[in-house]
Amino acid sequence: MLRMEKAEGGLSSKRRRDNPRDLTDFVFSWSLHDIFNENLYQNQVETIQEIFKSVQQYLGSYVYLLLEETRASLCSSMENISLLPFTEVADFVECKRSGNSYAFEAGRWRNESNTRGKETYKTLPGDILILTDAKLATVPDLERSGRRWAFGSVRMIGGDDEEDEAMSSTNFQVEALLDHEVNNSWKPMYAYFLINIATNRRIWNALHMSLNMDIVKEVLCPDLVV
User: Fold this and answer.
1) Rounded distance, CA 149 to CA 141, Å?
2) 105 forms bridges with which residues in the sheet?
3) Interatomic CA distance for residues 164 and 166, integer angstroms
4) Mean pLDDT of 142-169
């Protein structure tokens, strides 16, 4: 029986593209035009100040910086899409108890040495994939008439010991917004690795978590502490 390793944080089955809350929601909401638009958050990114009027101002000042960093990383990766690690998905089934999640059985990864330094590519929780029904040479291939594609986020992977190392890269669970006729309309399916956002997601969650406001105010807003 396949053992799965769960990614940090859960992904809601009620996610909507028009109401993103998690960092992964934003990634899923971006169009190709958004990703290649260097000015997407031009009016939202602020200069980081030395002293802040409120904790909310401090935390909020980093939100759009993080979104822009994530967008830029995706853009840089997609510009070299023909060199990215990719695999043909041999089979996939919808996980009934977890909305928008699919258990993937993939083949051998190609171009697996072209990312993460000199390490061979290994699927990890937090990996952002682009799923498509054809092999890609350039980004415009995604815009061809009739082409199907979607972003996916790896939620769980296979076992993590040496015996299961190969399985961890070929058996994994992906969160993706696919159509309801997925089993008939997405064959063949290819998965391309773009970036890993596990660290960015932890930062995102920290920016939105409940903090000890008294301590934070004392450090960030000394003029407001009585």
Assistant:
1) 10
2) 91, 171
3) 6
4) 77
Distance CA 219, CA 225 (A): 9
pTM of the model: 0.79
- When pLDDT is averaged across residues 186-194 and rounded to a whole number, the result is 90
The sign one gets for the Cα dihedral 31, 142, 94, 70 is negative
Q: Tokens 């058996």 map to which residue?
A: 171
Two structure tokens written together for 48: 């980081």
The lowest-confidence range among 45-49, 69-73, 105-109 is 45-49
pLDDT at 60 over 60: yes
Q: Please report the DSSP string for the chain in residue order.
A: ----EEPSS---TT--TTS--SHHHHHHH--HHHHT-TTTTTTT--PPPSS-S-HHHHHHHHHHHHHHHHHHHHHHHHTTGGGS-EEEEEEEEE-TTSTTEEEEEE-PPBSTTSSSTTSPP---TTEEEEEESS--SSGGGGGSTT--EEEEEEEEES--SGGGHHHHHHEEEEEE---TTHHHHS-S-EEEEEEE-HHHHHHHHHHTS---HHHHHHHH-GGG--
| Owner of token pair 């035009």 | 33
What CA–CA distance (Å, rounded) separates 38 from 105?
Answer: 35
Report whether pLDDT(216) > 60.
Answer: no
